[in-house]
Structures are given as structure tokens and as C-alpha cells.
Amino acid sequence: MIRKDQNRKKASTMETIRVNAKENGKKIKKYWNTCIGAGRAGEGLRAVWQKQLQMTVRDCGFRYIRFHGLLCDEMGVYRKEGEKEFYNFAYIDMLFDALLGMKIRPFVEFGFMPEAMASGDGTQFWWRANVTPPVDYEAWGRLLADLVRHWIERYGLEEVEQWYFEIWNEADLHAFWYGTKSQYFRLYQTSVNAIKGICERLRVGGPATSNFVPDSRFDGEVEDVSAHKTNQVENLQSLEWKGTWIEDFLRFCETEHLSVDFVSTHPYPTDFAVDNQREGTGLKGRSRYVNALQDDLTWLRNTLDASVYKDAEIHLTEWSSSPTSRDCSHDSLAEAVYIIKCNLDSEGLADSLSYWVFTDIFEEQGPGPEPFHGGFGLLNMQGIKKPAYHAYRFLNQLGEEVIWKTEGAIITKNQQGKLRALFYHYPKEVAESVPISAYPDRRTIEEFQKQGETAELSMCITKLAASSSFRMEILDQESGNVVKLWESFGCPSNLTREQETALKTCGENLKEEMLEADETGILNLDLTLKPWSVVLISEQ
């Protein structure tokens, strides 16, 4: 059982709660394991990447994966000699064969631009993705159509109909699109016509824009940096936030009679959208309030309901506590609790909330400089499980039917009628999202995690099988906190085999206790939850 921390302030006590295990509950949409992100297609050809993904799919249950770089030159997809075009899908086949063999489907992001089709030489990332519009939009459409036809021939229409096709990534940001809003809309129009021309049932969407904003910076054809309001106020919650390009995109598609099977965007809870975006803008790199995701998705749901595309799915194809791959908060316990809280609080508002990303084998700024550098991943480069990994592993264990739920706790039943209960402590006195702790400075997240009082929970679960047993797994400062162990080694940039083994053991073997209902089928629980701790209880 989790013990009280005598060094903390007096705990805030939660009421005793009685739950009937036989009670009929409400179906829950487990949208948290619909999709997971990865860096780029080229990374997916590596054996260690595939090994890590296979483990992640097994433990966390993800059904789709999205990544950048499918059409970049390192994948060898497109070349041109004179007026003759050549397609080569061999590397894509290798990658997609591997994914489907792991029982995870592609959430296809079409991007970035093959050099031989590009209108310019503007690039992004360490791996130099070309982010300019096509010099010939018809050539772009031909490439997509030929690739989709190839997939249908290789995998069958019934399979490909289960995929999603997203057009580009964050074209609202100059970093990812050296073009205008109208040029992106033309790209979408070309793409959706090419894909739907093959089969109307194939699912196409966009605009895959960056995080929400509280001002008019994206109202024009390109971003107007002078319109930023976030650098003018202290309280970000005082502003009204909205999705970028969403309304204009829906109006354009309605006017042009274009299909929109899903709307996608990236609701990072920050006042900036990409690494290094703050430079020269006056942006402070701040995090919004903890309920920002829920508010953003409510805005998005209402916007769709007011459009002709009210039946379109909502896919948040990137999300995390921040949009930077050098944020030490990503390695923390607080990240895990934030993931669980946001996913449970926003259930029913979206069809997927895709965490960005599953592994620190991720090279937008180049290879990670050390084992724990604030990378996006649920796993670090060596495959060591961070606390965030367990957040998704725990969420995946939840059943399909909720019989009781409140702030910080949920009790479910799976299809076999077995109980799955999840308890987490995001302190009520903490109003903001997990803050950015810019690598290599870990002090921000360390100070943040000192906040909060312990919380006590007393619960009586009835109508269980007599003497039924339960396993309790605990994630807290002393269990699964791999960064703490790494720091005890002196924060080595290069691990010995012994250190790597010790860290993997720490990340894999959480503290466990066994519980048992009494002979009348009653289980009494008295939990003392430290701030930033998580407990999963599973009926055996």
C-alpha cells in the first residue's frame, strides 16, 4: 500500500466511496490508444526502432502510427529525368510491411516534398526535409494516386480503407510550409481529388495545423508575428483560444465541394508551436492552464458542429505537454500524470489524441545528446521506459465500461467483467499544465514536482467474487522514476551495459502489492497518494 509521507503538509482527505462492482456502467471510448507518433519514416527502417515499437504496441495497444518524412528523398520515392517521372516505393514497402506485421496501421502523413518536385530549397530539421510547395501540383497528385494504387494492389482495398490520409504537417507555420494558406488549400484539393478518384471510401483529412492561438496571427495568408497577444499578458487563461486555419479550411472545402473525413490539429498547451519559434518573437515559452486541452477540443467540436462537416472525425495527430524535443519535463513523473488526466478529462471529445512520440530515436534536432535529454519519447533511445510509457500502459489496461469516475480516479470493467481501477494525483492546487523545463536545466520540473499535498482515498468496492485477488502497481518518486536513478549514476552521457540494465529494470519493474477481497466479496481500499503518483489496480 502507498504510505503517508510524513514530511508533507497535512493531507487533503477525500470522502469514503462505495462502488458496486456489478453495476452497469457507461461505455468509454479508449481514444488514447488509437494513434501514436514517431519522428520520420527513415528512422522506422532501423531494427532497434522496430523492436521498440513492437514492445510499445504490445504494452500500450496503439492501433495506428503517424510520422513525418514519407516522401522525403531518403525514402527514394521520386526522381525525374527530363520530363519522365520515376516512382520507387521499395523503402515504404519495407516499413509498412513491418508495421502491419506488428498489427499497427499507418496514419499516413503525406509529406514532405521530394526535391525533384519542389519549388524551392527551403528545408526543416537536421535531416533537411524540403518544405516548399510543389512546382507542379498535378505531379504531386499523380504521385499520391500512384502510391495509393500501389498500396491497394499490395495490401488490398479492404485493408487500405482502414487507413487515414493526412495532407502535410503544420502548414500554418513557415517552418513547415514556405507557401501561403491558399497554396496549402490547393495542395489539399489536389490531394483529396487524387485519392478519392481511386476510391471514395478512402479517408482523407487535414489541415494538420499547429497549436491553438488567442489572436489573429494566422488570419491572413501567412503568419503575422506582430499580432501575437501572448507576449502582452501575464495570465494566458484570460485569452480566448482557437484553432488555426480550421474555420477557413472548412469554408474552403465546403465552397469547393471537397471531402473532409476528419479534421486534424495539434493542441500543444503552450504559447509557441515549434522548437526555436520563440527567437525574435518575444514569446516567453509558457504553458497554459491544465484544462486547456479540454477547452480546445470543445471549441473544435463546436466548430465542426456549426459546419457542413459535423460528422467528420477529430484526430489530434500530435500532442504532448510541449512541442519541443528538448524539454526535461517529458522524462518526468508529472508528464505521466498529465497524460492520464488530460486523456480522461477529454474522453468523448475526439477520436484520437496521438502522443508525440513513442521513442527518443527522433532526430529533428539531431540525435539526442544523452540518455535523458527531454526527448518526446515514451521510451528513451536505449528503450528505457519513462514514466509516460506507464501512463499509456495503464490507460490501455482500463476496461470498456466505466462504473465510477471522479477527479483523480476511474474504475472500469473489461469484457471479461474484471475490474480495472486507475488512481492519479495531479494536485488541485496546481492550475497550470506541466511547464517546459528546457534541456539541460531540470530545475523547473524538479521545483514543479515539489508542489502539492498528499491525498487520501477511502473506498469500499462490493459485489466482487469472494476472496478475489488484485494486483496493485505503483508509479511514484521511488518506483519507475528512471531519471532519478540516472542522476544517481552522475548523469552519464554514455551508459555502461550495467547502467543500462539497471535503468531498464527500474523502468520495467514497478513496485507491486497484492490485495484480496474478503469472503463476502468486499474490497476495502485506503490509499494515500503522493503528488504526481499513479496507481493501477487490476483484478486477477
TrEMBL record:
One of its GO terms (biological process) is carbohydrate metabolic process. One of its GO terms (molecular function) is hydrolase activity, hydrolyzing O-glycosyl compounds. Belongs to the glycosyl hydrolase 39 family. It comes from the Bacteria. This is Glycosyl hydrolase family 39. Residues 17-210, 244-510 form the Glycosyl hydrolases family 39 N-terminal catalytic domain. The active site is at 170 (proton donor). The lineage of its organism: Bacteria, Bacillati, Bacillota, Clostridia, Lachnospirales. Pfam families: Glyco_hydro_39. Keywords: Glycosidase, Hydrolase. InterPro entries: GH (IPR017853), GH39_cat (IPR049166), Glyco_hydro_39 (IPR000514), Glycosyl_Hydrolase_39 (IPR051923).
